Fold this sequence. Notes:
The structure is a single chain. The two termini are 14 Å apart. An eight-stranded parallel barrel has the order 1-2-3-4-5-6-7-8, surrounded by six helices. The protein is α/β, with parallel strands linked by helices. Helix 1 runs parallel beside helix 12, helix 5 packs across helix 7 and helix 11 (218-225) packs parallel to helix 12 (242-253). The model has no long low-confidence stretch (mean pLDDT 97). It is globular, with a radius of gyration of 17 Å. It has helices at residues 16-29, 49-55, 82-87, 98-104, 108-120, 133-137, 141-152, 158-161, 182-199, 202-207, 218-225, 242-253, and strands at 5-9, 39-43, 62-65, 92-95, 124-129, 165-168, 210-213, 232-235. The chain is built from twelve helices and eight strands. The longest helix has 18 residues, at 182-199. Residues 9, 11, 169, 174-175, 213-216, 234-238 line the site of phosphoenolpyruvate.
Amino acid sequence: MRKPFVAGNWKMNTDSQSSVGLADGIACGSMDIAGRRVDVAVIPPFVYLQAVVRTLNGAHIAVGAQDIYYEQKGAFTGEISASMLKSVGCVYVLCGHSERRHVIGESDELVNKKVTAAICSGLLPIFCVGEKLQEREASQTSEVVTRQIRNGLAGLGVEKVSAVTIAYEPVWAIGTGLTATPQQAQEVHALIRRLLGEMYDAQLAEEIRILYGGSVKPGNAADLMRQQDIDGLLVGGASLNADDFVAIIKAAAA
Length: 254
Ligand code: PEP
């Protein structure tokens, strides 16, 4: 049995006060279930990580970072290393989010270095993959997702990959209000699980969690979670409202 996992990516939103208020609202609303029936993480901007970690002390909600640099330390102005993230209490880190791939221009190779650095330093990567609209329309979803997974996990053995959570996020569904139907999402999740079985082994494929992301809202979370291979949700916009995010956490725990 894979325990459900819901993560909220705050992207470049909130400020020093509202980040703490949002974390507090989520902690209060999910007190009875977070960490018990469902794993929960919030992923604030770097500058609010410490304040959010302090606010969530004792709440059984993990904190993650939105990105990482693969070097340990040195002359990399503006970058943040895995050990820095660990030292402020981060547990998870997003790697290869579509906005980093398609707005900032990160390649599969760079994402692979980040996933590797995260695992080697004891962080748990949430490794994001997903096709663009024109790729789906050209029936290239399977090819694109397979390439992103093979390249993103290159060089990592079964033990290291077991630290990874995969997030399937079709780019055309992120922040657009368009959600993949539960069937469309299930189809790709099943494909990813099959691929992991081929690349590693049946046990890893069975145990690894695959989240869906892309305009998840309180109204569609339960239908998505009912799919056999959807183990949780990566939530952007709706994670900025404590009531909505708590409703999604409850739907995942049900
Ligand atoms: C995301 O940021 O990963 C995401 C899925 O965003 P949204 O829920 O707003 O589509």
